[in-house]
Amino acid sequence: MKKLYLVSTKSSNFNENFLEVLKKYADGEIILTKNENSIYDISSNFKKINNNGIIYIAGGDGALNECLNAIYPSNCKIGIIPIGNGNDYARCFYKYFDIQEIIKKTQNPEFKKVDIMKVNNSYCLNISSFGLETKVLIESFKFKEKHPKNVNLSFFYGAFKSIFKNFNMESKIYVDDDFLGNFNITSIIAGNGSSIGGGFKALINSNSSDGVGDFLIAKNSGALKNIIMYIKVFLGKQLSDKNIIYGNFNKLKISFESEQFGNIDGELVNYKEIKMEIIKNALEIAL
């Protein structure tokens, strides 16, 4: 089985030491990205030639998302070498990130079928969210640009800059074609993964291969109560908050009164209406 190691050079943990370990244990060709289109273009070309191969992505959630959208649908498999900042999707499979051991394991991988989520015309591995969480992400991107040596602090900076603002979105929400209700919300988070922001388990009951997605709706209850609510999310106590709606879905539709910023696996988007659908066992992950 053909293997390709595709390395995102913009990843926060990409360095010469990593590259030395990768060259020592890799079991296939290594390609370093050269521009923002490299992962998508190289993955697309790999799929055309090797429809049953493995692409190991050395990067974060965004790099994995680009690869997924390039190869799906096909019989190609994706492997994860988590050298990004948050690495939230990798947390579905790895308790600890021992990069050398993860790379060594690529020589004789195991495979796990996972679900993916379609979001309008794109595909998502981990989580898509709209509202405050995306505002946090945007602020964290700004922090990374100004302080590239302190990227591990970016999520906390983004949260601090955003959480004190009373952010709200008027929305109509449908779950599996049934009308859930009209809500004034600060965030909606949905997906197959569980973590955001480098390990905060927003979708606490989520499973990457159970055939259903999880969603969390945070209703707007005023700035102070919103802060308390998000502290509960960070502590994993969100199910006890009356202003949070948590559930499962096969299909999820959200209509906003106006266009809203969101993200799909950390990639920024802008939609007025979102249609999400779970595709069961759509992809194999090489572990």
Work out the radius of gyration: 19 Å
Low-confidence stretches: none
Count of discrete alpha- or pi-helical segments spanning 4 or more residues: 7
Average per-residue pLDDT, rounded, comes to 90
The number of distinct β-strands equals 15
Could you walk me through the main structural features you see in this protein, from its secondary elements to its overall organization?
With about 290 residues, the protein is an alpha+beta fold. The chain has 7 helices and 15 strands. The strands form 2 sheets. Strands 1, 2, 3, 4, 5, 6, 7, 8, 9, 12, 13, 14 and 15 form a 13-stranded mixed beta sheet that branches. Helix 2 packs parallel to helix 3. The chain is globular. The model has no long low-confidence stretch (mean pLDDT about 90).
Brief characterization of the structure:
This protein is 27% helix and 38% strand.
